[in-house]
Amino acid sequence: MPQPRLISIVGKKNSGKTTLLVALVKELVRRNHKVMTIKHGMHPFEIDQQGRDTWRHMHEGGSLATVMETPDLRVLLAKPDAPLGPRELANRYLADAEYVVVEGFKESDLPKIEVFRKSVHAEPMFQPHVPGAEHFLAIITDDREFRAPIPVLRFTDTAWMYRLLDIVQQGAK
To answer: Cβ contacts of residue 87 below 8 Å, gap of 6+?
Structure first.
């Protein structure tokens, strides 16, 4: 079975990464692709509240992993023995996907699409002569004046999503 093709949506805080990821996933799904996602977070969180059954399974019982199954949702809760990168996560948990769209993991070697909003940050993450720049496939921006040696898509362009899909389908690895 072929491995899923991965693409990462990156950008600075409040740049619109989640909004872009949702729009991209929606369009890939509309085109009949099997799409799954990974969200990279930098802060610890609890998906379940202390005292609830799944919390008790892991924190009181010592379970390494718990699956919560409901009619509408299935959630895997697992204690990581070591941090996994996006490729390892996709291969372990999302191997049935055609595309895995990742939010974050900006330090990874994944192909990247950056969301850069001049209205929020003065400069993009992408810098052409910095190590890792070769992983950036395109930048989507609200800055009409921004130029880069990679494709620059503007939210004001009517066909930016179609251009983005072409870039993703050619560049996802």
So the answer is: 6, 108, 110
Question: What is the spatial order of strands in the sheet that 136-141 belongs to?
Answer: 35-39, 99-103, 5-10, 112-116, 136-141, 152-154
Q: Under a CB-based contact definition with an 8 Å cutoff, are residues 87 and 172 in contact?
A: no
User: Which CATH code for domain 5-42+83-171?
Assistant: 3.40.50.300
Per-residue pLDDT 10s for the chain (173 aa) are 678 999 999 999 999 999 999 999 999 999 999 999 999 877 666 677 888 888 888 888 988 888 888 889 888 888 888 889 999 999 999 999 999 999 989 999 999 999 999 999 999 999 999 999 999 999 999 999 999 999 999 999 989 999 999 999 998 88
Cβ atoms of 114 and 136 closer than 8 Å: yes
Side-chain half-sphere of 91: how many Cα atoms within 13 Å?
Answer: 8
Give the start-to-end residue ranges of the domains of the chain.
5-42+83-171
The CB density around residue 163, as the number of other CB atoms within 10 Å, is: 15
What is the spatial distance between Cα 45 and Cα 48, in angstroms, rounded to a whole number? 9
